[in-house]
Amino acid sequence: MADSETSHNTAAFWIQADALLRKNLTYQKRNISANCRLISFPFVLCILLIITQKLVDNQISKASNQCGCQCIDTNGDGTCEKVCGVQFSDLDQSPSCPVPSPPKWPPLLQVPGPQYRAVRSASDSFTDLPDQSCRQTGNCPVTIFITGSNQTLGQSLASSMFTIAPPLNSTNSVLGADSETKQDNFLDPAFIELSLYNIQSQCSTNSSFNVSVPLPLTQQSFNFQKEAMCVPSLNLWRNSSSEINDQIYRGYEKGNAQRMYNEILGAYDFLNSDANNFNVNVWYNATYKDSADGQTYLVRLPRAVNLVSNAFLQFRGRMVLDFVAEMPKHATKLKLDIASLLGTLFFTWVVIQLFPVVLTALVYEKQQKLRIMMKMHGLGDGPYWMISYMYFLAISSLYMFVFVIFGSIVGLKFFTLNDYLIQFVFYFLYINLQISLAFLVSAFFSNIKTATVVGYICVFGTGLLGGFLFQPFVTDPSFPKGWIILMELYPGFALYRGLYEFAEYSFSGNSMGTDGMKWGNLSDSENGMSDVMIIMLLEWLAVLAIAYYVDQIFASGSGKNPKYLLQKFRKKRPSSFRKPSLRRQESKVFVDMDKPDVIQEREKVEQLLLEPTTSHAIVCDSLRKVYPGRDGNPEKVAVKGLSLGIPRGECFGMLGPNGAGKTSFISMMIGLTTPSSGTAYVEGLDIRTQMDWVYTSMGVCPQHDLLWETLTGREHLLFYGRLKNLKGAALKKAVEDSLRSVNLFNGGVADKQAGKYSGGMKRRLSVAISLIGDPKVVYMDEPSTGLDPASRSNLWNVVKRAKQDRAIILTTHSMEEAEYLCDRLGIFVSGGLQCVGNPKELKARYGGSYVFTMTTSINDEHEVEHMARRLSPNSERTYHMAGTQKFEMPKNEVSMADVFHAVEVAKSRFPVYAWGLSDTTLEDVFIKVANSAQQFHTLT
């Protein structure tokens, strides 16, 4: 069986793309206020950062925060002189003050505090550690573990490390401190704060001494003295390095102070050392090397290495470690870039907030069924995806461009110091990945409120998780890089990592007066930007492909077979269809109670399927829809093997009570759901496999108006007209004719936004949309609902004229509308077609009787009933209430003259308030057929 000639109104790819682009631009123009609010968000954030930056700069520029001055008695006469430079009362001044001659600090060891030094514990199997009682007196020794292949040599070297001959001084003594280190050594906290220790093998009464350090930090140098308290050392042998590791690990218990609870001073593994060969591994305390704030501090390691080296060289001399000192430096201005310090979190929120914007826009079209409405009027998936994607990409690109430009104009170092080309590539990759992800996620949402909530949870959740979970892993050098890359597969963390790298480079560049990130920095081992860009590029392509596939399977009307891609490359527009060689057996199971007209319609369909050509636009072949049972309920058969043929030029009306299956039938025909079995052919195209081509010749007026609230009636028709390949003068004429036909042309109504239309006006616009472009098949679901009588009459005339050379399926609950518009009617009950024919045939077939109505007093009701029985022995009372009764009388048993005579007689016997005799109406036929069918299904 072949279809008719290919429809002339199929629009090409670029014509569809142009129509959608014009619609989107118009829609965007009407939502300019929402766009301004969106773009104002980064403006407001940047302004807040600038205000915060100004406040911080004002605090930093205060004299109290600059290189300080104090009054010093320089000549001993009791008068003081103002001397400016680093003051010992404020260690924070050292970064900004000039230090031409850095102080020479004695080298120190990182000594555990008295309360943390290693003692015996229940979990430790070694008994050579001191008892815990020493912590109460504060005289616990510091412990050193020794191991190696030569125990005698190891213990000898360890015992000689802390044996210092008098006189005690800062050069010969082994000094240490339990204070935290700083980033530089201009002012060592060990000499400013409380604790400074002199470590010896044994402490005597005169073991403590004052350490004198010349401090040339101010304009006049002077000596600073600090007492070094003696602390005994305890050298303990262990048989292997694993024993040492085990004790160090078990001694590291996190208390409230986050410190080592059972600390040792250090440990030495002499390996294969002997008298001629020196080889040693050193354990040292690096607790303060990388702090919680991400800064790297000094490590007090040189003295530990010097001690063991001197112990080995004790018979050949000693290498004296006099002091440690920083390099001289000029005065610098303290700089703190708030945007770089806080920008990673805040800018993550700024960029990722585009995700819920795109997501809600896509879900809105899905929830309002605008996407499927466009598709049912011929918009292909290719143009939709291309234009929608480029549309969101243009908006996102403009958003990011304004964001970067504004941040640069107001002077945020986060933008001005980093290379703009790197920023462009990074943001371009991410917004593409973000748009692709929004397309993918939108397939799983059908409610815009839910999508909005989830979208903004992702926004704030990503920022907070990035700052408090992901960033600590990035800054921890011991955390495996592979796990970092795995976490960056989540797009939000990839965005956070890139912004973090920008912030680090801009913060460092601002502090040191250098540039931020350049292309050469991407090769640095610590720079994760190159990894992030590669991840985002690959994810963008993968997510976009997956999103398109998922959209085709789940979100495009009734969906497609998961294997459709295998068929897509070899599928061309079909020109004919053939009857399947093996018909499904269940589609041939029909009940014996089918009416002759229904059986005749089925036989006609069987014949149409065998013919090579046909004038029928719609052929339904045993169409069946079954909804699976849920919550213990049985499955629901919505459509039971419907066979129906509708030729061009016919308007077919579908009547039936609520729940009869009309909506399920229409949903299958327009592609919203797939048939459970059987199929239907529209213009020769199979709705199961060729629905995309069916859409090009189809018009739909849905039960609920699917319109864009901010587009005008004219703009709606222009958009759908372009989808039907109308252009130029023909498009303009078709739009104006459509507007006039539904009374939406005059009075400026055509150029009023659809959101301001009344319900009746929206209904008329929906009918005009369904008819524009000369579609070959039109589905109208209750088109006159909500219309006033005049508008309804005008709309009926529009539909009546429109059915020329096209097939129309119309559902309605108005019997008057069905009788006026429809060439044939079908009554649906419980999923099955109960009868089919034109209105006159149905009334003749199912309504061969008169309806006699009479109203009397309640006391005379039995008299009326007796009169009806005398006129027609087979009359049947169909209505009885408060003195009013209706009777159906077969036409072959009664004449109208007899009825008039009987009424005259009755009036003389009892009061008759009202009476009437009418022929059977279509409504009577509908009620009769529906009731009988429902009674039958109830009994069966």
TrEMBL record:
Membrane topology designation: Multi-pass membrane protein
Gene Ontology CC: membrane
GO molecular function list: ABC-type transporter activity; ATP binding; ATP hydrolysis activity; lipid transporter activity
Segments passing through the bilayer: 38-56, 338-364, 384-412, 424-446, 453-474
InterPro entries, sorted: AAA+_ATPase, ABC2_TM, ABC_transporter-like_ATP-bd, ABC_transporter-like_CS, ABCA, P-loop_NTPase
PROSITE patterns, per database record: ABC_TRANSPORTER_1, ABC_TRANSPORTER_2
Pfam families per record: ABC2_membrane_3 (PF12698), ABC_tran (PF00005), ABCA12_C (PF24526)
Keyword terms of this UniProt record: ATP-binding, Membrane, Nucleotide-binding, Transmembrane, Transmembrane helix
Protein name per UniProt: ABC transporter domain-containing protein
Organism of origin: Dovyalis caffra
